[in-house]
Amino acid sequence: MANENEVVKHVLLAKFNDNVTPEKIMELIHGYADLINQITVLKSFVWGKDVSTENLNQGFTHIFESAFESTEAIADYLADEKHVEFANLFLPQLEKVIVIDYKPTSVCL
């Protein structure tokens, strides 16, 4: 059973294929965001575009971050038919993708 205060983040870095239009990207983002209304284990969702001036993004342009109560909840999310259906639309639009799941840790000084 997960600790009441435990949070697990699921981060996806994406570089869309060159032929994907900005309109299609926004359509996909809206579909991704709507998963929070369809999958109960998904607790929060945020996204953004790279704005760094360091030029270290290796071509990745978008980041998507979801929060869950446990690693088991992420497994449930990944297996959920709504996620699978969306992933089958989303992933083919990507040239590159990285996914990392982590438990945020605060530094106590």
Fill in the keyword field for this structure.
globular, 4-stranded antiparallel sheet, single chain, about 30% helix, 4 strands, alpha+beta, about 110 residues, 3 helices
Sum this structure up briefly:
29% of the residues lie in helices and 28% in strands.
Describe what this molecule looks like in 3D.
- The protein is an alpha+beta fold and 109 residues long.
- Helix content is 29%, strand content 28%.
- Strands 2-3-1-4 form a four-stranded antiparallel sheet.
- It starts with 7 loop residues before the first strand and ends in a 7-residue tail after the last strand.
Lay out the secondary structure.
Blueprint: E1 8-16, H1 22-34, E2 44-49, E3 62-68, H2 71-79, H3 81-90, E4 94-102
Antiparallel strand pairs: 1-3, 1-4, 2-3
Shape: globular
Total of DSSP H or I helical runs spanning 4+ residues:
3
Helix content: 25-40%
Q: Which value, in Å, is the CA radius of gyration?
A: 15 Å
Oligomer: single chain
Order of strands in the sheet with most strands: 2-3-1-4
Q: What is the SS-derived class?
A: alpha+beta
SSE pattern: EHEEHHE
| Major beta sheet summary | 4 strands, antiparallel
Distance between the termini: 29 Å
> In what range is the share of β-strand residues?
25-35%
Low-confidence runs of at least 5 consecutive residues: none
Mean pLDDT rating: 95
Number of strands: 4
